[in-house]
Write a structure and sequence with these properties.
The complex is a heterodimer.
Chain A lengths: L1 H10 L1 H6 L1 H4 L11 H35 L8 H13 L12 H32 L1 H14 L7 H9 L2 H26 L3 H10 L3 H39 L4 H10 L3 H29 L7
Chain B lengths: L4 E12 L2 E13 L4 E5 L6 H9 L6 E6 L2 E2 L9 E2 L11 H12 L6 H14 L15 H14 L4 E5 L7 H18 L2 E6 L2 H7 L2 E5 L7 E6 L8 H4 L3 H17 L7
Parallel strand pairs in B: 3-8, 3-9, 6-7, 7-8
Antiparallel strand pairs in B: 1-2, 1-4, 4-5, 9-10
Helix pairs in contact in B: 2-3, 2-4, 3-4, 6-8
The chains are: A mainly alpha, B alpha/beta.
Chain lengths: ~300, ~260
Amino acid sequence: MNMPLAKVAVTSPAVTAAKPSTATVLPIVPKRSSLKARALAFTTNAFVTIVPPVVMIALILVVWQMLCSQPGATLPPPLTVLNDTWELIVDPFYDRGGIDKGLFWHMSASLQRVALGYAMAAVVGVALGTLVGQSTWAMRGLDPIFQVLRTVPPLAWLPLALAAFRQGHPAAIFVIFITAIWPIIINTAVGIRNIPQDYRNVAAVLRLNHLEFFYKIMVPSAAPYIFTGLRIGIGLSWLAIVAAEMLIGGVGIGFFIWDAWNSSRISEIILALIYVGITGFILDRIVAFAATLVTRGTAAN
Amino acid sequence: MTSYLQIDHLDKSFLRGGVISEVLKDVTLTIEQGEYVSIIGHSGCGKSTLLNIVAGLLPVSAGGVLLQGKEVNEPGPDRAVVFQNHSLLPWLTVYDNVRLAVDKVFSSTKSRAERHAWTIHNLDLVQMTHAKDKRPGEISGGMKQRVGIARALAMEPKVLLLDEPFGALDALTRAHLQDSIMSLHQKLGNTVMMITHDVDEAVLLSDRIVMMTNGPSAHIGEILEVPLARPRNRLELASNQTYLKCRQRVLEFLYERHRFVEAA
């Protein structure tokens, strides 16, 4: 359909002029650039995104090395860190029982706690947010409570959670849950409240039932807001897990850091911090990527 | 005598900040099957409120609306609305926007294949089949409005309600769409109620023009028959005496007898 139309427009403008309704809808066929040009563009792009951070990191490492190599320095310079922790870096999978495990096991234990707590927070948060966004009375009743509770620092919940669950593991998961849930609730509620009246009118004229309205209008319309909440939530969970694990002990990257401090293995702390930072970054990117997949087209209006 | 669509002694008031403001007062209007009626008036005169009441999106304060003798008190696909800002769902493709309406209205009466064919048929009517896989964000304002019209037509409404459908479009696109609407009305014989503030548009498209007085407590000031034969051609009408006379009548009503004072 597209091709003949384009042809008509090129060969005989008079014909298109006679059919004004089709003349406005000429399809734009994107020009395919040559392989060479695309390869060049890709390389330039990679160069532009990769080179600046690499240069900066090198610069920071050099400065750090110079500062910490002086006599009396309290922190190890990067080369010493690398030297001290080489074993941990090359063999993250060792397991000598107890808490003497490779970094992979510590990270995976922390990630599991975050996954569980965060998943529960996402489900409950979206549900509560929908309720608060949709019902004026639920909002009046619940919103003040949420506004107060969300300011409670994550770790303040830990003793209460320990008292309730009597075990470190579920208490840590609860802390993740309670940390991540507030931004998810609040953003979902805002998203639901901001569904344009036009969409509600369309739903009314079509007589969509509640379930159809939820799936076909509410979720897609509020999706950008929900994902903002989810993204803030994953960041906060990852912030909270390290602190919580320092207190509850056991296997986990938080306790690994605390344990290293108690044994004065400063280099290991630095390595763990780098791992925590990179993992947090990856988690954020995963949620952001999911958001672009789900909300494609929603913003374009 | 019962008419096709009957608006009977309709009052509408809103409660705003503890103050009751009466928007519509004693509006009575009947529309026959297949008739094209325009409602024209200055902004704020309550013409959109009137349309929303007929659509069932707003409740009446007194009086009522009857469609084929049955009272209207909730929205439904038998009174499909083409909204001023198209109101397409941006996360659905053009096809899916129309299909959503088709699936909902004909869920029990048409098979899957028939619903697909009916969706395509309605996109064909507004010449939008070529863009059926595009999202609303990727097509122009005029095209969006075409899809909005296709969605409304696909519901096979008893009354088609147009809420300033071309108000947000540039003059050339508007003329294209007016011509499309005219030929669709000719072909399908829909009953149409259109809100507009464009005098030329009203005269060109309508069988009757309902002129509203200024609010508050707006009512019908005058109803003008447009005795022009169809199909109408905008170029020929430009010098047609009847057309010019009708146009003159509406202009006089709007700018002499019911000047919009606040606008000045």
